[in-house]
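Below: protein 1.
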Amino acid sequence: MGLRRIGVIASAVVLAFAIGFGVRGLGPGEAFGHSCSATDRRFIKTATTNMTALGMWAESYRSGDIEADEVATQARAAARRIVYGKPRDPALRQAQRLMNAMFTEYGAAVVLADKEQRRAGEHMHRAYGLANFAREILVAARPGLAKQGCDVAPLL
């Protein structure tokens, strides 16, 4: 399959994720406004820590300091940590779902690239696409969250 076709398929999958999460973003009885509850702040802190760690794992892997299996294990653990928190804010919940999928795809990409000697481009493309969608959601929500007292700048 050509690189362009893989990119189009991956983009379509990412778009489907974003649309699906947008439709299901709010539960019954929830307001459409932003919130900044303790669980929202905890999610922002957890997500920031895990995104920073992902950058460090990726750099350590590229420099040969850690193995692909360790990066994949850490990415899967980050995905679990991301979903553990229960943010109330609808934008943070959308970002949470996208970031969970992003960590999962990144872990799969590293394993495929290193251990199975297969092309990991599709998984990596999805991971970056999911990260970009999460970022777009957070950028759009930033003013409303800031008014409530939550700063998502560390995630941008």
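Below: protein 2.
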Amino acid sequence: MSSPVERAEQVFQGLGVSPGIAIGRAVSIASQEHEIIRFPIPPDRIDEEIARLDEALGKAQAEIEAMRLKAGAELGAELAGVFEAHSLMLNDAAFVGKLRARIAEERVNAEWAVHETAEDLASRFARLEAERFREKSQDLVDVSRHLLRCLGAISHHDISELEGEIIVVAHDLTPSEAIRLGRNRVVGFALETGGRTSHTAIIARSLHIPLVTGLPGVTELVTDDDPVIVDGNKGLVTLHATAE
């Protein structure tokens, strides 16, 4: 039987936003795009669909509150404040009103209403220059993903059954994803996007997990089990690392 082909070592320069060096096997997570399908809702089922949305809002609110309390107890008030902002967003009458209105006026499923509304608002905030508006854009993405999970549109990233030390390679990660993954033998993050002041970077530093961002296209270059080194001190990520 022929031996597996060795892949050449590749080194990428990114931005080290959480210090430290981690060595592990790659696990790629597709966190940028989700297949959200638009379904037409008959007029006599609009109230039922809004009720589905309200139930998911309540579930998401309870889960985020639990994460806020856990983050406050284990990681401090600053990170608990991230989830407090998410909780306030789910309670915001204007945001929730837009979701309900979209369902009623466009006669669409709750998943589509959440996805489209969050995309619209997040893109508006992202275009604004102030850092606080860009952070609000990130919060909207996180909240919408959480709400979509509660509606059953997307699943949690569950890597708890994988063995060994893991380097998560992804387009991006929301703060709640970073906390959840950081408790499952994840020893490093390599992301295509993100900056030094992002909530995800703050969480990685609090969890003492090396993080390198600014690596466009990296998710397309790795396969699961590839050996990876993340150097958060120098902002370097090494794929298919040799023993040396």
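Strands lie at 10-13, 15-18, 21-29, 166-170, 186-191, 211-213, 227-231, 236-239.
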